[in-house]
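In response to reviewer comment 3 from the previous cycle, which asked for concrete evidence that the modeling workflow produces usable outputs, we include below a single protein chain processed end to end. The sequence was submitted unchanged, and the resulting structure tokens are shown without manual editing.
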Amino acid sequence: MSEIWQPLIANLAVVALFSSIWSLASDWLDKQRWIVRKLCIGVLVGSAAIGTMLLTVEIVPGVVYDLRTCVVAVGAFFSGPLVAVIAIVMAGTYRLLEGGAGVSLGIAHMAAAALVGLAVRASARSSLPNPLWIVFLALAMALLLLFIVFVLTRIVSLEEAGELILPGTVLSLLATLMMGLTMLAARQAGYDRSILCAALAQAPEFLYVKDVDGRFLTVNEAVARHQGYSDPAQMIGMTDFDVTDPARAQHLYEQERRIIESGTSVLDLEEEIVEKSGERRWYRTSKVPLTGKDGRIVGLAGMTVDITGVKQLERELIESRDRLSLAMSEMSDGLALFDRDGYLVFCNEQYRKAFPRSEHVRVVGAHIKDILLECARSGEQLGIPEDDIEGWAERVASLLRVPNVVTVELFNGSYLQLRNQLASNDSALVIVTDVTDLKLAERALIEANADLSRQASTDALTGLANRRVFDDALERDMARCGRAGTPLSLILLDVDRFKHYNDLHGHQAGDRCLVMVANALRASLLRPTDLAARYGGEEFAVILPDTDITGAEAVAERIRTAIAGAATSELGIEVTASLGVAEYDLAKGPSTPENLVRRADGALYSAKAAGRNRVMAAE
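The workflow returned the following structure tokens.
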């Protein structure tokens, strides 16, 4: 058994040696072109496989075993099929030259190991796989070895093949794990270095390292571009005297000497510098001394950030703040800002002056509820319920969180419009505007509009609806009653012998007569839906929705009697009227407003012809 262990342990040493070589060369390999890198790794893996074959375990003459398959599997796992092919070709050629009964099995074993490595690589799907995949690869190689041992029983005895199981499995696992984890660590370190180098090289800040004499040891791309160089390597070995004016260079040299001699860092130093182009820019610089392993300071590292934009923003912010302060003091509106808890954090003088009785409590730090309670206590605002002042203050304070616009009336007759809106930081902004003039103008406009509306819809003499309103109402009510299937009746009324009355008593008396008739009409209608209108001259009309011909005749008779009685009591003379009634009933056939008026007018003509002072219904 020891005859098997010793060469396999030597194989393990070879694997460790080549793992170290691959790990050490990884940085150099990563900088090469893809094809060069693959060729070099393939040759390295193939050489490692041949190295293990120099220390083989000979099971029987011509049949040998070593750890070459572990090397091939790891190479395939980390570097892909091209590396596996190169390694198999190199190791396979060497095995062919050795000869023996197990040549074909040995080459097949290497091919199978490469396939195992490629399969696990495809499953991992990452250039930086989890270490667990290395364990899977090692277990797969151990299983592959057991399969090869089974195949060997066809060439050698079961006892001879069985001696290989324990040492082969253990060392195969160790070799795969050792080489795989070594390469994974190297690749991880290289990846981390590449990320760090890329970050430093491509960082927008100026990053640099100097020795104790002020010479640049390394600079990133931002420094090189700023100084007019295309490659950072061009600045290595230079000093500030080579890249800037002598006065500036001397200042930097003295500053850095103090840092190195004192061992004290300079952090966030802001400077305004005039560039070569004459442009003035601001920079923030931090420099720290670097200490070697022996504790001596060997140089310094620096980072400089262009903060010109920040300085411009600061200057603009100050200017904006000053302008805002001026605007706040000059604006006519009051402005107040409450935080999310309802406390006043800012207000201008106009806000306080807008509330003369609660001005003294409207100060920074006051709560909105306390302000409202003082407003109610002092009687400053009208319309506050006296029996629920606390509840009112709670309700109004809660509205501070809801964007809205309200208008309040104060004790002195002035009106204030309060607009509140939520700000981005969850605070509430309240703008107070004196709208007294606007409110008074609005009230006058409403009254004027109401007066114009009354004038446009009523007859100027009688106060009844005019002809235009009558026409619209008749069309509307007929359509509604038609849809509902209910009747509608129309009464047309004409003052008897009115022209003779006018000629006899004069136009003013005639107007008084018409007003009397209108009042009698208005008093005779008992429902708000009935409409009385002056149809024209001494003629009047009454629309009776939801009323059949019988009901309309009763209303007409009431109107006729009321006119006669009012004339006797008010004018002291006899005035009578003739009335015609017509019904609109959709069940009796379709009709239009014009047709209904024509029928009512016909009934009125019949009443006149029958001797006046009577009611006649249209057939």
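The chain has a mean pLDDT of 84. We consider this sufficient to address the reviewer's concern, and the full set will be provided in the supplementary archive.
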